């Protein structure tokens, strides 16, 4: 499936409509469509790129920018796992996408799972989206992104008392508290969506939930393969050294024997 026309998305009901996966990792056997929504500029496209292992300038990456970038829903299959399809949705709350036309435009109910991406302050739109999804009985995670900026700001604002763990705890608690106050129970993950931060905070946890190998697990695999190769090379060189030593010993033995034989021969004469 490719990107949709403004009207096409609504009318052209996708084949996966109504499908409910048992687990987010079901994409191993069948396609899973994950919508990424949230307020405009929160970092939706950036997160999709990072989850697909891409930077913003890479070929096939979703366009990102400081002004409204995503205008229409567009699918982005994972480059290595094409069954895992992310949908980059336009941001809610702009003049082009006010709340009252948003749901009609994006048809949230058609996706298998949703990531709500929120940044800086918790907004009315964040709560509204979460409430709609809960009412639709649609699985979703609440992703609080741009944590790197919050940490840097807090360090600047409170140089004497800055503590990264406290900043993370405060943000997580704030999101949970506001969601719960609105009657919503959701999993909150606190991340930076930038590719260079994919090993930090809750991003590896999000990747694991989606069944995407994390840089950490890939690191273990690389370490395992490298140690196997190194052990093999060591064994190989040991065998070579043994063979060399064996040959040298044989040479020495032959020389000594020849020398002794020569001496004996001379004495006999
Ligand atoms: N520091 C930091 N910047 C981010 C992060 N996520 C996104 N950005 C930046 O924020 C800007 C907007 O990001 P996008 O990914 O385009 O946001 P979006 O939600 O897709 O925007 P729209 O499609 O316009 O709704 C870009 O300049 C990104 O580089 C993050 O986690 N940390
Ligand atoms: Mg975007």
Number of DSSP helices?
A: 8
Low confidence ranges: 1-18
Which structural class is indicated by helix and strand composition? alpha/beta
| Sheet with most strands: strand arrangement | 2-3-1-4-5-6
Biggest sheet descriptor: 6 strands, mixed
Helical residue percent band:
40-55%
Number of domains: 2
Radius of gyration: 30 Å
Q: What is the CATH class of the largest domain?
A: Alpha Beta
Bound molecules: guanosine-5'-triphosphate, magnesium ion
The backbone outline, from C-alpha atoms, is elongated
Order of helices and strands: HEHEEHEHEHHEHH
Q: Look up the CATH topology of the largest domain.
A: Rossmann fold
Tell me which CATH architecture of the largest domain applies here.
Answer: 3-Layer(aba) Sandwich
CATH superfamily of the largest domain: P-loop containing nucleotide triphosphate hydrolases
* First-last Cα distance: 98 Å
The percent range for strand residues is 5-15%
* Number of DSSP strand runs: 6
Averaged pLDDT: 85
Give structural notes.
- This protein is α/β, with parallel strands linked by helices.
- The protein folds into 2 domains: 24-213, Rossmann fold (3-Layer(aba) Sandwich), CATH 3.40.50.300; 215-269.
- The protein is 45% helix and 12% strand.
- The chain is built from 8 helices and 6 strands, in the order αβαββαβαβααβαα.
- The protein has helices at 8-11, 44-51, 99-106, 124-135, 147-157, 164-181, 203-209, 215-268, and strands spanning 32-38, 74-77, 84-88, 113-118, 140-144, 187-190.
- Strands 2-3-1-4-5-6 form a 6-stranded mixed sheet, with helices on both faces.
- A hairpin with a 6-residue loop joins β2 and β3 (84-88).
- The protein starts with 7 loop residues before the first helix and ends with a helix.
- Mean pLDDT is 85; it is low at 1-18.
- Residues 40-46, 64-66, 68-70, 91, 145-146, 148-149, 192-194 line the site of guanosine-5'-triphosphate (GTP).
């Amino acid at each position: 499936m490719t990107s949709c026309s403004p009207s096409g998305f609504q009318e052209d009901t996708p084949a996966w409509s109504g499908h409910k996966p048992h687990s987010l990792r079901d994409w191993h056997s069948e396609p899973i469509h994950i919508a990424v929504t949230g307020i405009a500029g929160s970092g939706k496209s950036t997160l999709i790129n990072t989850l697909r292992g891409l930077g913003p300038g890479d070929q096939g990456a979703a366009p990102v920018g400081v002004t409204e970038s995503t205008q229409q829903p567009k699918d982005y299959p994972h480059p290595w796992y094409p069954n895992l399809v992310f949908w980059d949705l336009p941001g809610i709350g702009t003049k082009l996408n006010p709340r009252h036309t948003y749901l009609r435009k994006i048809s949230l109910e058609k996706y298998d799972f949703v990531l709500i991406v929120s940044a800086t302050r918790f907004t009315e739109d964040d709560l509204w989206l979460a409430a709609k999804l809960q009412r639709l009985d649609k699985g979703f995670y609440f992703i609080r992104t741009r944590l790197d900026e919050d940490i840097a700001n807090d360090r600047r604002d409170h140089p004497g008392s800055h503590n990264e763990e406290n900043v993370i705890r405060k943000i997580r608690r704030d999101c949970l508290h506001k969601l719960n106050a609105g009657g919503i129970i959701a999993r909150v993950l606190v991340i930076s969506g930038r590719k260079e931060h994919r090993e930090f905070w809750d991003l590896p946890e999000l990747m694991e939930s989606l069944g995407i190998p994390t840089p950490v697990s890939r690191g273990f695999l690389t370490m395992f393969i490298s140690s196997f190769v190194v052990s093999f090379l060591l064994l190989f060189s040991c065998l070579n050294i043994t063979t060399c030593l064996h040959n040298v010993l044989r040479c020495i033995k032959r020389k000594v024997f020849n020398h002794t034989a020569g001496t004996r021969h001379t004495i006999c004469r």
